[in-house]
Amino acid sequence: MKHDAVTWLDFRADDLSQARNFIRSLQEEGVIDELGFLALLGRFSDLLHPATTTLMRSARYFYFVAGIYRRIELEGVHTSQVSQLARQRQDELRDVLAAKETVGVIGREAGIDLRQFPSLIYWSGLRKLGIFTSSLSESAYQEQFDDIRRSHRGYQDDDKTAQGPEGAQYWCADLPPARFLNSEGLVKSGETFKLTKAEALDLHKRFTSRFPDSLLSHMLAHRLVGIQWPWDCPKASRELRVWLGHARNMSLLVRGATLQYYSLLIEELDKLGIQSATNIVQPVFEQWWDEARDPLKNWSTSEFVTVPTVSSALRPGNRGDRWFDEYVRQPEVADPEKEVTKRLETFKRLLHADQIRGEYDSNTRTLRLLEPSTAGAEGWPAGMCAQIVPLLQRDHASRADYRLVYGSGALFTGIELEDVAAFAYIVISNVDHKDIELPFVIQFELNLGARDADDRDNAVNARLLEGVDARSLLLDILAGRPGGTSRSSGNRQYGSGQSGEPLLRRATIERILEACTADPSRTQEVEAVLAASGDTANMSTFREFWAVFRSSLEEENASV
After folding, report:
1. What does the pLDDT read at residue 407?
2. Number of Cβ atoms within 10 Å of the Cβ of 480
3. Max avg pLDDT among 53-67, 327-341, 443-457
4. Is 431 helix (H, G, I), strand (E, B) or coil?
5. Phi/psi at 505 (5° precision)
6. Are the C-beta atoms of residues 216 and 53 closer than 8 Å to each other?
7. In angstroms, rounded to a whole number, what is the distance separating the alpha carbons of residues 63 and 42?
């Protein structure tokens, strides 16, 4: 008997259910949407970044896929061969790109096991941008290739007169030429993700003409790059600003719901004895609540859920209003001091992200502290104050408003070379609770040249820690540590000094800080040396500095 096919015969519903469950167990894990926000995410994606997905890696894949398929059409391939040939050409594309590109190459890791080829990932975008002019799916388009081949050969009319080729056109006629393919239809070696000028202009035109009100078109029109969050995008129209505000609030809401979901999972794991309950979510939730409370309290959710594109994505039934109401309408925190302290901690993290640069002029004895970006000044929290002063500055009362670093710079005059160090002391507070202050130390980039650095070290040696019997012990503590901000001159070697030499002739303040930061256990050794040296008068400045640094280091370690 000849068997042309194998079919599955089932006689009982249980058999069919068991078979389906087995097949499903062999498939890859899909996207899980426990909280029900995936549909809303799709709506925001269409409004802000249309025709794009998170799986996309490079805009040039739009033209790679179109060029490969257009070439296969010209080759007159049979329908039965299209799928295999398209995958083969995309495998060849992967190998060519991997030779030049280090990231973003689809299939680099999966290789022959790749399931989602670029054509599948980019197909929807190709249709939305009008590059592919039909509404057919990729597989349905592949089924048309026998008709495409016949139409390219032409046909005869009723009088048997040969006519020119006719048939459906599946690709936009004015696409840029696929110059990345050679005469044989293969991808040329050396090709990269860099768009040609024609491809870039074509893609720009498609986005801005088809989706003129989207955030992506706005960014293209104004050449905006490096925007971290959509709602931080400048020059947005009034309509776009409304959607960006909704997007920000939705992002805050989802983050809080996700944190609560994690907390519930941890509690259940604890009840089942699978995992001991840990307090890892609570501090993150409190930080989120500080940021989210006011924006969510002022968010008009009734307006948001009635927008057609949003309401069509909501699941039937409870829209989460109960969860939202429960948290947004909680009473204010009873302990105002605790609330202020948390806000100061959040503010401290914000300032830690700044990249401050120090510029010292030995001729005018001035030190200027600058932050190249002005983003910090624009996002300065209301009611927060911050003052900054360079460490080793003799006049500790000479503090400057921290916000000056975002403009012309915080300028400190009368700074001797021996007072210059790549560290600054910052004190932050709140205008409504000036009695609560949070001090900490930061390190900044210092522009001292090798000669000035050596002169500075020598000047510091003349003033700090001279004549202390404990200096040789402290040098042993620091033996073998890497060099710091200042540079050594001559043949200075750690641990080889005489007991009569000043401590910082071989170990500067920066080196002590770096050694203790790299190995926190060394702080205990330094503490022991300081205790052994007693109340030596010329160590008072170092002790003041050390107290602030030790406190700041402990706070930093506690927050990790």
Report:
1. 86
2. 8
3. 53-67
4. coil
5. -65, -30
6. no
7. 24
Min mean pLDDT across 150-154, 178-182, 292-296, 341-345 is at: 150-154
User: Measuring CA to CA, how many Å separate 471 from each of 152, 464, 475, 495, 516?
Assistant: 90, 11, 6, 10, 16
d(CA 212, CA 233): 16
What is the identity of the amino acid at 207?
A: F
**pLDDT at residue 372, rounded to an integer:** 81
Give strand ranges (E) for 391-450: 400-401, 410-413, 423-430, 433-443, 445-446
Residue located via tokens 């007693």: 534
Buried b / exposed e across 108-121, counting CB within 10 Å, b at 16+?
beeeeebeebbbbb
- E-state strands within 149-280: 155-156, 162-163
- CA distance linking residue 541 with residue 250, whole number of Å: 51
Cβ burial, residue 528 (10 Å; 0-12/13-18/19+): middle
For 94, the token pair is 């992967």
Flag whether the pTM goes above 0.85.
no
| CB-based contact 542:535 (threshold 8 Å) | no
